Amino acid sequence: MSHSNTQPSSFLVKNLPLLESLQIQCGVLDLACGHGRNGLFLLTHNVPVIFADNNETKLQSILPTLDSVAAGAISSECWLVDFELEDNNPLADKSFDAILVFNYLHRPLFASIKEAIRPGGLIVYETFTVEQRQFGRPSNPDFLLSPGELIQEFSDWEMVESFEGVVPGPDRAVARLIARKPIL
Question: Which domains, from first to last, does the chain contain?
Answer without folding.
Answer: 10-180 (3.40.50.150)
